[in-house]
Design brief:
Blueprint: H1 10-22, H2 27-41, H3 55-69, H4 79-90
Length: 92
């Protein structure tokens, strides 16, 4: 028997534990199922694709590029500078 250790952030682990519990599994069993299915299919047991943004997301990305390239839009060196400027505007 071999031991596999994987590091994952706490929130993702909690979400996975909850999901697998709802499916009647514990996380180690779900991982074993994944490995066995990978071996059965001789590939990953699901399709891997690059995310394809929808029309709304593509329009938002276009708008973000336009804003970023607009010399009339104020830019900031860091988030603290931006928040300082926002607070200053609220007090006017």
């Amino acid at each position: 028997m071999a031991l596999i250790q994987v590091r994952i952030d706490d929130e993702t682990k909690r979400e996975a534990d909850d999901l697998f519990a709802q499916l009647g599994l514990d996380t180690p069993t779900a991982i074993r199922i994944f490995i066995h299915q990978s071996l059965n299919h001789y590939s990953l047991p699901f399709e891997i694709k690059l995310p394809h943004p929808n029309k709304e997301t593509l329009e938002a990305l276009k708008e973000a590029r336009e804003i970023a390239n607009n010399p009339n839009v104020k830019s900031y060196e860091n988030v603290d500078e931006m928040f300082y400027d926002m607070e200053k505007e609220e007090n006017v």
